[in-house]
Design goal:
Layout (H helix, E strand, L loop, with lengths): L1 H13 L3 H78 L6 H11 L12 H4 L8 H38 L3 H10 L26 H6 L2 H38 L3
Helix pairs in contact: 1-2, 2-3, 2-8, 3-6, 5-8
Amino acid sequence: MIKFFRHIRKSLLTQGKTGKYFKYAFGEIILVVIGILIALQINNWNENRKERAQEQELLLQLQSEFQSNLEQLDKKTDMRNQMNSAALKLLHAIDHPETRNVDSITKHIGQTAVNPTFDPIINDINSSGRIQLLQNVDLKERLARWTSEVIQVTEEEQAWIFIRNNEYMPILSQKGFMRNVLNRYWKDNVLASFHLDEGTKTEIDLGNSKKENVISAILDDPLFESSVAQCTTYTKLTNSQAESLRQRIVEILELIEQDIHP
């Protein structure tokens, strides 16, 4: 094709048709420019199509991750609600010795001795630059704030974990009550959650402590009372933060669903 155009220009020059030659050359330049623009447009269209396909893949991935985060957050919130309820019942038993029952106290202490932690999926789309694939500005802004908002929940969790590990659990061991708590865990199959394979069941009967007045010894300890009060305080504070975080997750999922194309 280039040789064909070159032949025409050469023929025009040979014939002395300089005016027509320049007109033809100018027209040829225009055609070349138009061809380049069309090629660039096609290339841009292909790149945009690829990016939109990648965006859809990313949106589906984010949808799955945040749905998992939501389910996990709800489970941890339910656990903390149980902790809070048990802690309040322990405080009632501390204030009213006549209501104390060994089985109930053991159950309530077992429920407060746990440390539910929210361990969400943190996507690396910010550091990897993949966030630029998203066209929804509102969604990008919320995803950029996600990590910092998770910290607000986990900070409260860590405060209780510190108290649990350094005050609460040592009291249970010192007062000889840990045996009762662990025995209750085995009976209720609470420890099944620690198995690698779901559904695995291990049984053991530790029996309860034979020491006398073990309930009074622990409930009448001021440090135990203080730890229980902190348990109910931190579980309430954490769940308050978790409720706000839950709303963020719901809003993110709604924005994702709006942009997913069937």
